[in-house]
Amino acid sequence: MLTVQNYVRPQTLEEAWELNQKKKNRIIGGMLWLRLRNDTINTAIDLSALGLNNIEETEDAFSIGAMVTLRQIECHAGLNGYTCGAAAAAVSDIVGVQFRNMATVGGSIWGRFGFSDVLTLFSALDTEVELYRGGRIPLSEFVNRPCDRDILVRLIVHKTPGHIVYCAMRNQRTDFPTLACAVSDIGGTHRAVIGARPTKAVILSDENGHLANGITAESANAFAEDIASRVTTASNLRASAEYRTHLIRVLTARAVRKLGTLGGDCT
Questions:
Q1: Measuring CA to CA, how many Å separate 134 from each of 74, 138, 143, 148, 152?
Q2: What is the pLDDT of residue 37?
Q3: Are 84 and 165 a contacting pair, CB within 8 Å?
Q4: Does residue 35 surpass a pLDDT of 80?
Q5: Residue 30, Cβ density class (10 Å: 0-12 exposed, 13-18 middle, ≥19 buried)
Q6: DSSP annotation string for 5-54
Q7: For residue 266, which of 84, 90, 99, 167 is within the disulfide window of CB 3.0 to 4.6 Å?
Q8: Is 48 exposed, middle or buried (0-12, 13-18, 19+ CB in 10 A)?
Q9: What is the reported pLDDT for 39?
Q10: What is the pLDDT of residue 264?
């Protein structure tokens, strides 16, 4: 059972940061996974008064506040236009609408959860995280850092030219993904991001140039085989390691073939 002794809504990020330096205090985000812990929180820090619940679109990027919900991601026309619908595809099967109305982008990214569709999606894009004290760093760097007492303020998704496809396998529709896969050609670089393996998502590029001469059924299969050979999987109650490796081949090849059908600007 989770016990919360005090609840605070800071009025500034500096106030929130100072509160968060105490070991028994916690930023609560949407509090959907945190509430399942058997723990005692001295002070629950709610960032909802700091204006971090908006998606701001400029000519060059999307700025996604840490308190933006997954439902906002699912429904945002500009973000889904840029991602060819991949943003909605990544989150639309996460539990249910009520859950997605509460779960936050900041909580999903900060937690670096192995099962995270959100982390898999944004890792395939040209994404930075903005930390209150740590400044902007690439998401790919952030996910491999140890957790500290900084605050994730927002994501910045740069509108680098390219396309992305997202797909996942679930044992049933609203379950955690058995395997998650995003394939993109952002900035002319093909990459595959494999999540729910069952540990956190890994990013791999087309180091062997399988897609350098274009996407065909043969090149898609070769790229998928290459990715499957380079990703470590493990077994848990949802699937065996062997099945997950098989899914990497299937989902990656499927995503690459779909990527090959996307031309021009998805908007």
A1: 28, 11, 14, 10, 9
A2: 73
A3: yes
A4: no
A5: buried
A6: EEEE--SSHHHHHHHHTSTT-EE-TT-TTGGGS-EEEEEEE--TTSS---
A7: 84
A8: middle
A9: 80
A10: 63
Six-digit token string for 6: 């005090």
For range 168-179, the mean pLDDT: 93
Q: How far apart are CA 2 and CA 143, in angstroms?
A: 26
Residue 183 identity: V
Q: Tally Cβ neighbours within 10 Å of residue 25.
A: 20
**The tokens 């993904």 sit on which residue?**
177
| Residues 84, 162: Cα–Cα separation, whole Å | 10
The pLDDT mean for the chain works out to 94
Write out the two tokens for 66: 């840490």
Residue-range domains of the chain with CATH? 2-45 (no CATH), 55-158 (3.30.465.10), 164-259 (3.30.390.50)
Cis previous bond, 198, omega within 30: yes
For Cα atoms 237, 101, 178, give the angle at the middle one, nearest 5 degrees.
Answer: 20
For the entire predicted model, the pTM comes to 0.94
Q: Which two tokens stand for residue 241?
A: 């390691």
